Amino acid sequence: MIDIVSVIEAILFAAGDSVPIARLSLILGVSEEEVISAAAELREQYSSGQRGMRILRLEDKLQMCSAPEFAPYISKVLEQRKAPALSQPALETLAVVAYFQPVTRAYVEQVRGVDSSYTVGMLCERGLIEECGRLDVPGRPVLFRTTDVFLRTMGISELSQLPPLPDMTNGEGIEKLQSAIDKLQGGSNSEQISLSEITGETAEE
Description:
The chain is α+β, with helices and mostly antiparallel strands. The protein has helices spanning 4-15, 21-28, 32-48, 71-78, 88-100, 105-112, 117-126, 148-154, 171-184, and strands at 19-20, 53-58, 61-66, 103-104, 129-134, 142-146. The strands form 2 sheets. A 3-stranded antiparallel sheet has the order 1-3-2. Strands 4-6-5 form a 3-stranded antiparallel sheet. β5 (129-134) and β6 form a beta hairpin. α5 crosses α6 (105-112). The longest helix is centred in the first third of the chain and has 17 residues, at 32-48. The model is unreliable at 185-205 (pLDDT under 50).
């Protein structure tokens, strides 16, 4: 009989990206609950043993990543540069997509009241949002949703863990959202970026 924990560990290591729990269940011939339980056991082994790896659950997927405390060393060895912090327009756009997904760019612009082409494109380049189909209306506009990278960035496992959305029509609402996000970002993984540093990007209307 196979050791499910070891097999899942091997698969996640080899994949290098998130793997659907349903696919692991199908391939291993066990229930999704057994896969989740095995992943939790593996996560505990890594955590209690002070290992250099961690197991993340991202909605209905699992992923292996490096432990956050080793991020400075990894960045130096791989010569990685920290991504520029998100600007306020980018945070606003990301919030609209996260809380109302899937959405079109036109919907984002309707909520924000300004053209959002640049920020939508930038968030796609960062891997925080992605295309997920087209709306069944004339013109068939592209729909956008958040990604696994977004979940890792926020330090959460599922969208239901996002803080309540405050009134975004004024600066105070953005500050409240930022404060709530900062509380979520407890440094649980090395993929997180600090949204509290809302500087460093080209300003948008």
